[in-house]
């Protein structure tokens, strides 16, 4: 039970890796929800991204092409959801759940024959001088490039949503689609593109699992990561910078409980694993207990179907 | 989510089966799997058994299977569908299917059921399991001989007696060759979650383990070991040779084929009777995969000698003197553990740190 044997460098390094796939998927979903659409198919989009990325990487021999394949796969499957909910006006919750089931099934089908293969990998980023710094170097600055792409993406999304006109329009559509429509914004097309962006991000998150973190293809390998990503968006109360915190918390808890177990610390592992979800529920309760706060956080039109005639 | 998925699968199964019953002469054998058949581990091994059964009996047998069936009450529907659509014999291949199997079997007295790795039987439910702990003894011996850091990592799955038995057996034999050895055990509470398995392996490596044993089903831990270099591990349930000669230095292989063929033939002959069997290396149900060149010749020879002595019955991996974790005596010198105690084993032997989770 010696806490000093915990290596903070290794801990922080694996925490960053564990947080990356859920952060990628969550930032995509955050944009989707900000535009007023609830897509519960994150798990399905992630697993499709995982298998598409894996197959592309193996066939082309390049992990970067793998990422591209994963992004395209994610976009393709999310376009089904976008078509169903934005053009055919189908129920978003049901369509999202169906997307997850479909994604799990279709990924198992196309991934058949790719088990037991090792994919090409990424080189770790090596920044001269910085990567050699004590502590910070090995813990934070010597990862594969996707870890940084994930963080960069969150910053870009923050900038887009808060500092650009298009970002403000997207948020307006999410807050009140009727008003946005009345002002002449194309609600359907803005949402359509947000959904595709969400699909791309989820696809990248899935590919991070199959190409970097595991790295191999196994059916159902996302094992609930998509649902965690959904929880993180709520935990972050739709704010990108809190989303980084959420991803590190959710990823961190899973890493820390493994480390504590290996150290032989006798704590309730179940409680520790439960903790992030408890916090999420508390955040939800806090948001909904205060009307002013809730209107400031959850997008007003979240999950509502829009039709120009209404 | 899982529920929905099972409903859909159940539906698909129903249609699939009802169509095939029309053809219906041959004996119909169903298999229920807890994970995907291409996991490269536990489920792949069972499905190999199914394919061997088809090959052995040709058109006299027809097999059906459903993969990714969650343990617990959910699995009852899948079994019920199989029984309703004419299966004569159903193999349920995970510990958590035990009570569901008994429940469904009570409703279909004419259908024979075989449940793997449990401990309950009834008139039409047999249970079959393999003495994996025999293989764990050999892994423990290799692990204890080869570790330089004296830290051996163990990725444990679900806290049931079978897994605890494996940990104990490996520990006893590692300790025997290397008294300084220490086990670090991580419980994942799942049979397969590649990302978690990989994280667990990395965590153990970070904490100094240079040999890792796994009781989870995927090859993800071996991939993590390969990336780390200088860490060795073992194939689990399937041979996992794609990670040989190192990190995979040997493996425990489950060979269910002879049993599946024997029991299917018994149903065809009408000689099927409920039984509880527990086969080991001697019958081939537990196989020890090739020990690669990464293992020094001396250790390999010792490991093979250990295997042979288990096969001949000269040696039992749980032979006293052995104490329980709390220091109370369990087996006196020379005494061998009885099957009843082993079947219900929920305690660690002396020397292992930590607690078996509830």
Structure explained in plain terms:
- The complex is a heterodimer of chains A (310) and B (358).
- Chain A has a single domain, classed as ABC transporter involved in vitamin B12 uptake, BtuC (Orthogonal Bundle), CATH 1.10.3470.
- The model of chain A has no long low-confidence stretch (mean pLDDT 88).
- Chain A has helices at 8-34, 42-60, 63-87, 92-111, 136-140, 145-163, 165-175, 177-182, 187-213, 225-235, 240-263, 269-289, 291-297.
- Chain A contains 13 helices and no strands.
- Chain B has helices at residues 2-23, 42-57, 74-84, 98-107, 132-146, 161-177, 194-206, 220-228, 257-269, 297-312, 339-343, and strands spanning 27-32, 61-66, 89-92, 112-116, 125-130, 151-156, 182-187, 211-214, 232-237, 248-254, 276-279, 286-289, 322-323, 329-331.
- In chain B, the strands form three sheets. In chain B, strands 2-1-3-4-5-11 form a six-stranded parallel sheet, with helices on both faces. In chain B, strands 7-6-8-9-10-12 form a six-stranded mixed sheet, sandwiched between helices.
- In chain B, α5 packs parallel to α6 and α5 (132-146) packs antiparallel against α10.
- The chains are: A mainly alpha (310), B alpha/beta (358).
- The A-B interface holds A 5, 7, 10-11, 14, 18, 21, 43, 97, 100-101, 104, 108, 112, 115-116, 118, 209, 213-216, 218-223, 225, 227, 254-255, 258-259, 261-264, 266, 269 and B 1, 4-5, 8, 35-36, 38-40, 68, 153, 184-187, 190, 192-196, 198-200, 202-204, 206-207, 218-220, 223, 242, 353-355, 357.
In short:
The complex is a heterodimer of chains A (310) and B (358). With 310 residues, chain A is mainly α. In chain A, 72% of the residues lie in helices and 0% in strands.
The residue-averaged pLDDT of chain A reads: 88
Weakly predicted, low-confidence segments of chain A? none
Envelope shape of chain B: globular
Return the average pLDDT of chain B rounded to an integer.
90
CATH class category name of chain A: Mainly Alpha
Helix content of chain B: 40-55%
Q: What's the N-to-C terminus distance of chain A?
A: 63 Å
Largest sheet of chain A: none
Q: Summarize the amount of helix of chain A as a percent range.
A: over 70%
Low-pLDDT regions of chain B: 12-23
Number of helices of chain B: 11
Give Rg of chain A in angstroms: 20 Å
Q: Greatest interface and its residue counts?
A: A-B, 40 and 38 residues
Proportion of beta-strand residues of chain B? 15-25%
Question: How many β-strand stretches of chain A?
Answer: 0
Oligomeric category: heterodimer
